[in-house]
Known about the structure:
Layout: H1 2-21, H2 24-28, E1 31-38, E2 45-47, H3 48-61, E3 68-78, E4 82-92, E5 103-114, E6 117-126, E7 129-130, E8 135-136, H4 153-165, H5 171-175
Parallel strand pairs: 1-6
Antiparallel strand pairs: 1-2, 3-4, 4-5, 5-6, 7-8
Amino acid sequence: MASDESQIRAFLERRTDAQRSKDIDLLMSFYSPDISYYDAVAPLRFTGAAEVRRNFLRWFDGYVGPIGLETHDLTIVTTEDAAFANMLHLDSGKRRGGIELPIWVRETVCLRRLDGAWAITHEHISIPINPANFQIWFASEKDAPARGGGRSIFGLVASSLRTRLGLRRGAVEKLA
């Protein structure tokens, strides 16, 4: 079913374009009205188009300007009227508060063909963490090992400030 796979690949590319440009109406057109969406943020599960829409608007509001979103390692499996895809996304852009911190996100989507058109009926997002210390893994490359077992947001912000201000390690922490 190469044509179904090609259709879904193009469908997901258009959806990513809608995410990048924060076009909420276009983005929601890719989802079934009864979508179940599992996110990495509370409340963890969003059900129905209205809840998912509010969650996307929350995500969009966290960025100043467009969202950088690169898709990597996309895998698609199709049957006659159902499909699933999994991928990695590198999510980047300038966040409110001035933080520019790219993060790898894992995603799985399940699709159904409804009235001849594909629609996402289930989506699951996760962020890799180090289970030893529950810190988010901010790797520079998707296959790079986590340095120091994971990084905290505070540690990353402090490191960024040190670099911007030309300070030695420990100087920013003493200011806090």
